[in-house]
Structure formats: structure tokens, C-alpha cells
Amino acid sequence: MEFLDYTWILTSKDLVESNQTLRSLSFRADTHGNLNATWFLKLYPKGHEGAEEGFCPIYLMCEETNIYPLEVSYFFTLTNRNAPENIVAKDTNVFEAGRGWGTQKLIELPRVLNPENGFLQRGRIYIKTELSYTLQKQTKWPVRPTAT
């Protein structure tokens, strides 16, 4: 199993003033030639389909990969200087290039932007993403008996 972590630093201005989807820089996993995958995070500061008002959905996106299916366990951690008040979301899903998975309830914007709550640190928030990869076994389609 391989591990990768990435921290995305956003400013409060990014979250308040952006009317577009925010995208992190790409980050890459290279497991000695077995798996090459490039990832990025996507955040919707003004909400997204089905998200409760005030929440910013965040997704881990697979930009490219040389292996499919690729099962990934991932954690999003919204760090808090008043730890252990960190907010964590975790899941395991199968990824392919161009697709992503995530959560709609990690970032409650009013709570995160209130300096008293500890998420805003010098005008910035820190979203840590941790991934672990498991290569799935090749699946075979069921064989159906033929009529004779």
C-alpha cells in the first residue's frame, strides 16, 4: 500500500470572493513504476448540487492514472489551531481519470471564517488530504452456459 499527502492552503478571500470553482495545484504519486497518478482538489465555495446552504463541497479528483480500477482511501482534514477540533472526512472509492469523489459537509463556511473557531490561521485555512492506494484485482465477467 502506498501513501501520499498534500496540504492545500486557501485564504479567506479565496472562499468569500470567488464565484468559481477553486482548483488546487496538481500533486502526483509515483510508486516505483507500478502506479503513476496525478490528483487535484476541487472546492465549490458557493455550494454545489445537493449541498446544504453554507457548505463548500470538496472533491479529490483523479487527473490521470495508468491503472484502472484504482481503489483509494482518502481523508480530508480541515486543520484547527485549537486541535483536537480538526474536522475530518474519510471514504474509500474507485477512481478513474477525469472522475472524483468527496464530501459536501467538510467546510461550513460561516464556522470556518469565524476566527474564534480556530480554523482561520493568519487569514488562511489548511486542508490536508491523505491518500492510500490499493490496486484492485482484475475482475472477470461471469461465464454463462451456452445452449447445445
Spatial gap, N to C terminus: 46 Å
Kindly state the number of beta strands: 9
Residue stretches low in confidence (pLDDT < 50, at least 5 long) are: 138-148
Q: According to CATH, what is the class? A: Mainly Beta
Cα radius of gyration in angstroms:
18 Å
Strand residue percentage: over 45%
Organism: Apolygus lucorum
Domain MATH: 3-131
Protein name: MATH domain-containing protein
What would your notes on this structure say?
The protein is mainly beta and 148 residues long. It has one domain (2-135): Apoptosis, Tumor Necrosis Factor Receptor Associated Protein 2, Chain A (Sandwich), CATH 2.60.210.10. The chain contains 2 helices and 9 strands. It has helices at 12-17, 109-113, and strands at 2-11, 22-23, 27-30, 36-43, 55-65, 70-78, 87-95, 100-108, 124-135. The strands form 2 sheets. Strands 2, 3, 4, 5 and 8 form a 5-stranded antiparallel sheet that branches. A hairpin with a 5-residue loop joins strand 3 and strand 4 (36-43). The longest helix is centred in the N-terminal third of the chain and has 6 residues, at 12-17. The chain is globular and about 45 Å long. Mean pLDDT is 82; it is low at 138-148. It holds the Pfam family MATH_2. It comes from Apolygus lucorum (Small green plant bug). This is MATH domain-containing protein.
